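Researcher: If convenient, please comment on what follows.
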Amino acid sequence: MHAGQPPDPTSGAVMTPIVLASTFAQERPGQHKGFEYSRSGNPTRKALEACLAAIEGGRHGFAFGSGSAATATLLHTLRPGDHVLSGDDVYGGTFRLFDKVMRPMGIASTSVDMSNLDVVRKALTPATRMIWIETPTNPMLKIFDIAGIAEIARAHGALLVVDNTFATPVLQRPLDLGAHVVAHSTTKYLNGHSDVVGGALITSEDALAERVAFLQNAIGAVPSPFDCYLVLRGIKTLGVRMRQQCASAALIAGKLAEHPAVQAVNYPGLPTHAGHALAARQMRAPGAMISFVVRGGLPVASRFLERLAIFSCAESL
């Protein structure tokens, strides 16, 4: 959790300084100390990117101004005529990028239930260049076989991207299971305090990393140094928070499953969950996200949300 954050060489500060400079002095044109302009690179962002790469087990980390910015930047590695195969349960902002932004640019996408590997194989086309999954998914908490899908992707010559926001590297590391890229909304568990909007990409693919670095600078959807500092601060307690949140989620899911007003509970830690066994194999714990269905439909669900006392009715997690 402290990777990429050695003591500051100038002052000895043990916390990464927030370097707010937008530009950096050069001895002569093109000769500098590693930084020239904060869109291209910043010491605080560099520390965060090194930390993100380390905790996901990758060689290259990239920080962005939001999870959607990270997704959009990665999708810009594709070309018109390419095809993306996506899981059928993804964050709404990701679907919006696939359907409303990339499709008009000539990049097609298809969504399928990736719980069945044969379905994944049959959905591939000669133009498929990327497979995009979340696991656990948002919001139905489906579990997809990362290693199995990675094998299919590599045989087809496609990149496998895993949005690891819900699990975090504390619970699973997709690169270790064969994925090419890990994506995050650092807004969520990594920061953990609901005071930052950010995103990240991590990979060990050198050629892809070179292209992403170019696009990160060219498109410019980078986070501020202060936001980078806040995410670094949040990551320091990630392990402790995830352990407690997983324990709390397991208790709450069990209580919900027994409640007469609840029709269904989606939580991979329950033995009744379709992905329970797979989650036990590829995750260290089933996570801290729960979705459930109350009996009575939308009117009852709305009244339930209006009467919450401990949880806030708010977006994000």
Notes: The longest strand covers residues 128-134. Residues 238-258 form the longest helix (21 residues). DSSP finds eleven helices and nine strands in the chain. The chain has two domains: 43-235, 240-306.
